[in-house]
Automatic annotation (TrEMBL):
Belongs to the glycosyl hydrolase 3 family. Residues 715-786 form the Fibronectin type III-like domain. It is an enzyme of class 3 (hydrolase). The keyword Lipid metabolism does not apply. It comes from the Eukaryota. One of its GO terms (molecular function) is beta-glucosidase activity. This is Beta-glucosidase cel3A. Beta-glucosidases are one of a number of cellulolytic enzymes involved in the degradation of cellulosic biomass. Catalyzes the last step releasing glucose from the inhibitory cellobiose. It comes from Microdochium trichocladiopsis. PANTHER family: BETA-GLUCOSIDASE, BETA-GLUCOSIDASE G-RELATED. Pathway: Glycan metabolism; cellulose degradation. Its main location: secreted.
Amino acid sequence: MKGLIGILLATVLGTSQPVRGAQAPEATGLAFAVPPPTSNGGQAWKDSHSRALKLLAEMTLQEKISMVTGQRGPCAANSESIERLGIPRMCFQDGPAGVRPALGHTQFPSGITTAATWDVELIYNRSVALAQEFYDMGVHIALGMTTGGPLGRSPYGGRNWEGWYADPYGTGVASFYGTKGFIDVGMQSCAKHYTVYEQETFRNPFNFTEPYSVYKASEQVPISSNVDDKTNHEVYLWSFAEAVRAGTTHVMCAYNSINGTHACANSESNNLHLKGELNFQGALISDWGGTWGTEGFVMGGLDLNLPGLGYGNILGNFYDQELYQMVLNGTIPESRLDDMVVRVLVPLFASGQYDKPIPSTVINSVGAANWPEPAQYRNVQKRSTVELIRKISADGTILLKNTGGLPLKAPKNIAIIGQDAGPNLLGIQGCGKLFRDCDIWNNNGTLSLGGGSGYAWPNNLITPLEAIQAKALETQALVQFVLNNTATNAIDLTITGRALPMGQPDVCLVFAERYVRENMDRNDLSLNIGEWTHSEDIILQTAAKCNNTIVVLHIPGPVIMEAWIDNPNITAVVAPLLPGEQTGPGLVDVLWGHVSPSAKLPFTIAKAEKDYPPNTISYDISVTPQADFTEKLKIDYRWFDSYNITPRFEFGFGLSYSTFAYSEIKSDPTEVPDSTSVQKTNESFVGQQDGQSIYDMVLTITAEITNTGRWTAAEVVQLYVSFPTAENQPPNVLRGFTKLKNMKPDETRTASFPIRRKDVMVWDVVVQKWRYPAEQTVTFRVGSSSRKLPLSLTHRFCH
Ligand code: BGC
């Protein structure tokens, strides 16, 4: 029994739970030096803000308190309803790849698979489809996207797969378009987890059933992510700025502490950065169990304490009556409470959900066991969504190696090896109702998503085995399979052809996986997990005897491949990562060449674990665990580039069935004022004049790309910036990408990169503003990956 499930069941069964001590270290003496800014609605929500103020004027003090403390109800969290004022009970529900826990909706491709498409149109369309399903299931606030917490500082991170690129700019683009998709369909969205939330280990020591628990509940404080101001601005805050600019209505503060203060009570992070610099106008909500007190959190910027009274109050008795007393006795000004309420109401108006009620909810979370709404099923999946996610699966499948194995050449005898190709033997709920918390003894079937609150049940998961069988029916091919990774004899019989008079298979498809979930970080980057998957073993066994072995990798991040990647019998390797419920059809599209692969890696795959920055998960046992972000700006590819370490596959790498040539880099200094920001941030820069924004476009870089191969294919073109040495930046940082789609053989197209001021600026910790680099000079490099950058151009900014 693990994690939240343990707590929830214990509550339902009436077992007594330790109470989170208000005297836990750090809960006292909280510094809240920066006062919480008051909202004004920003440029997008002015009307909603006035309407919220009018409603607020009608509320009693008790009603205001109940609006900022999560209430009991059917969803993961619920806000108070005030019928006389027309305020509905709002439903907050996970997660980033589908509604959880309920049935009848889509299990979308993970963030990293979608990121691997490098296609902003798909990123946006995925959010639109996802948001629509939340709406149709009766959810007011979707607890997604994962907009840079975690960003992927550590390759071991248990939740990296919920997010996007191990890079601030890439994740920033995804956060912007992804958030916009939610907002455009009238869904309230939540950017999470704010911020520097880069490890699961010691994230929430209140929950003593979590795997890393050592001390009793509440004896230990959460891990403190210790990060300097420059790194925070240039790496971790960047993508949250994009989510805010796109109009996210909510931001969820993380479990961890930041430089010694709980994220949800950190006035520097919440009041100075989020509500000040980024000018966030919505509600800051706590992660479940991220609140450890009342006064310090209210004044540290936390608006809504969730789940509050939900889950029988087991995550702490904060806000609620304590807040009521504090407002009455003047400890907390009523004006602060008023702003908290307004920040909850503004998104309700702005999304349109106040004026037009959303459908009734079908959710009935386990935490609301006595809630009288049993329904958890409503089929909301549209045919167009199934097509969309099949496309994302195919376009997010990275071709890592190809010595001629792909596309398949009409094989007549196909062997499929690996449990990861087939279904879960215990059915759709075989890994538990809430979290895909799998039992290791079971054959859990194909890995289409990681576990934890980011998991979502599929509506109709089509496994690789089923999709390949359907394809083989069309092509009249024989399909043999072994779905037991430890059945070495059966595997041997199949790959050597001794099982059948037909002889050796034309192709052996080996399916390898690496499972991970929220609440745990990976201990290593291997494909064999103890007695579990033996994924590396089956690759080695198959490649030893089958001279056309193709490896398929369902992985949540990097794995080390050195034991087999150069094996000449391995003729191709593809990585769909975690592709969601259309995993099989998406894969077939790539294997049979219905589409040319066009995906590229959103993280770096190293040759050895020691090649990554050291100690990126802090396992040191202490009552005050610390994670020092000593690699600073040099996460992922920036580390490899800085120290000249050759990776196995670099960030941005991915093969195609076609080939491309790059030529003619040019710049056009026409400036275009920012018209993309839904909400304007207050981020400022040195020399800023009235009316200028850091998001104004100051330059366009273009390059010519030619399809030199024989396939119609897409190419992801990437732009990196090199700052002058004086700035002490990594050699190259991603600052643009574009996907040229459906390029015909011999076709040449222009790749165009709009460069905004922020893209060519650095954060100056002394003046606390962005500024151009030394000599106002930067070099732009354009190419097909972070290490293949054939074109370059140096530009000097004259203002
Ligand atoms: C996770 C959040 C999630 C929340 C509600 C927490 O444990 O960190 O991402 O939204 O639970 O399920």
